[in-house]
Amino acid sequence: MGSLKMKLQFLLLFTISLTSACKQDDAVKLNEQTKHVHKTGSAIVGKPQAPVNLNYEFVNTPMLDETLDILLKLSVESDTEILQANYTSSSSLLANDATQSQIFSNVRKGKSVSYTIQVIPKQPDLSYVNVFVSTIVNGKKQSRAFAIPVSIDQSMPSSVILKSKPQSLPLPEGFEYNQQQNIVIMPAAEPH
Amino acid sequence: MNQAPPVKRMPVYPWLFFSFIALLYMLISGCSSSNSSAPVDSVETCYDVSITYTGFNKTHRLCTTREHGGNNGLGVYRFLRFTLPATTNVNIQVVTVSGINPSDPDLVLFKNGLMIDSALSQAANFERLQLTLNSGDYTVELSEYRYVSDLSKSNNIPSAIELANFRESNIAAFNLPAAMDVISSPPCNTGNDNIVSGVVTFDRVLHSGTSLDYNSIVQLPLQEALVTVVCNGQEYSAGLTDQNGSYSLSFPAGQDSFVRVYAQLKQTGTPGWDFSVVNNTIAGQPTYAMQNQQAINQFVNKTQNLHAGSGWTGLTYEASQRIAAPFAILDSVRKAKNKVLFESPNAIFPQLKINWSADNTTSTGSISLGQIGTSFFDGTEIFLLGQQDNDTDEFDEHVIVHEWGHYFEANFSRSDSVGGPHTSGDVLDVRVAFGEGFGNAFSAMVLDDAIYIDVTGLSQSEGFFLDVEDNNCMNPGWYSECSVQSILYDLYDISDDGADTLTLGFSPIYSVLTTHQKETPAFTSIFSFTKSLKTIFLDNTIDDITSAQGIDPVLDIYGDSQISNNPGNTSKLPLHQEY
Lengths: 192, 579
Prior knowledge:
The structure holds 2 protein chains of 2 kinds. By secondary structure, chain A is an alpha+beta fold. In chain A, 20% of the residues lie in helices and 41% in strands. Chain B is built from 11 helices and 27 strands. In chain B, the strands form 7 sheets. A 5-stranded mixed beta sheet of chain B has the order 6-5-8-3-27. In chain B, strands 9, 10, 13, 18 and 19 form a 5-stranded mixed beta sheet that branches. In chain B, strands 15-16-20-22-21 form a 5-stranded mixed beta sheet, covered by helices on one side. The interface between A and B is large, with 88 and 136 residues.
């Protein structure tokens, strides 16, 4: 009986904590709902894309030298007979899948298909898994690239870094940043 | 003595059990209420929208929907219009009558495309706008925020907040205290000048299908670029390359000088422009430049050619040799600029930064880290992708000119587009359809090449393409960017196909875009454009071209003449509800 009591008390505490978490989540969503009004000429307008979508989530937390499962959810904007996804990763992310490719047939608009890929972070730095999703539109193959950032250091989200101080990525060898003139000087070839 | 019966204590377990059930209910209901702000299915939400002023009170029922998907699909925004005969107090009120509950309607008031006021509260099922307005034509945008905030499509366009953070950090970069006092070097001596001259070239990797073909790399002259001679770290002389990439500048004999070529087109005065390719992953967004490595210090004239190589090694780009990209981008911008300059020889182009980095990738997050999501124009600057084995755009001229086309719209014409993700077969908000269709058509006009190619993939071997000349659009109509690009390009090009028997060239298109379209009281669309074009060119064959895309003959700027083309399960017509 005592055991049942303990179990129920645990359930109560667990539920309270979940409720609290749910409220926190709501607060975040409210902040995110800050409305922005577009004005003439101020909208952010991008290039056209192949009519495919990718959502992803990490099944587990990225850890150095440990397998990271990434769940990919693919969807299309019109019915397609063939949907193909390939992925590659930088050398700092070891792909744990020999084929690195997946083909789905008869994918319907509004329905998503999903599969899980595995990579092993070998360095703590920011790395990317590149996913290329292809579909057939009017008999022609159309592809779209997605990049999934993987970073071991979860303590410093990039937006926080941005707000605190300006940052710069390193330049390739031979490039020089002249801060006074605000230019990046690259070495030209000098043909005769 | 009667002993009081023992009080029967209720066991703790039922309390705990009931508490658990109650809290579980709270949890579910609380979270489900938060879930109600998550993407909503294609339920139609309808409102009674009233406009009231002295002697006038009318109500119409308008409905919004997200049945076409995304936050910029047709029906997410609905439009109404009214004309005031005199200055008066106006009340615009919207009350939800059916559909999602609670709904969150919003109102934004425009006059000739300029936002006058908005009502964006989070009040449930209600919104109101009260203000004093002058006489004239007004348009109102009604939207359901629950649909506007739906990101069911992969929206890899950075948010306004990310862009604001980026701008803030770059302004901060200029305000940082100097690490050390910079002592200016003395200027180099003048009076004993020689001439350094040469040719500046860059690699352009051509396309093969939707791939970059590294067996087809051509060396092209870099035209109109800013070239300087630098001596002691200071500019000694400056000029521009000509159409052959040639330059000729003075340098001081006997002193170490370098020839520096900027990824910048710059001309002051009238006409004038300042387009520069900059690095968004370095604080301060520095401009790219290249220069020779061996100092020039001769006492005789010198020939110094400079070349920007692609950096392709056969398998990959060598980062330290990837010099051509900023100059290839600059060359595409030059072509677009000259297309406009031909129509308007005294044009003054507002300054434009084109952000490119080899780290710019399709992930969104920190723009300073190169996580730009996609190539885009944000109303002020252009951002272009550059990460190899993901998506590179430096040799995708149509992509660059498409984005420059948005810059043109924002500064020479007008676009009321709300932006967002888009593709050819989408059923889009009419303003988005026109803006994106124009961007695609404009790129084909500038480059005189109807095949729009955008390479992606491992070794840049996959991609996306569209044929701007192709009239067989999926979901054709006034809400289709494919239809808009097909119409605009058919009006422009010299080859007749299908219903296209016209060859107007760019001049009338430019003329309409920079006058009527810029000032139209309607929202910018294929209707405002076509009606204006028909007013100037009394040619009924324009209707033949638009009709081939399923658009009823265009008789007005508002689209009131549209009767038959009303896609989806819910009515989107009239496009502008008249009061």
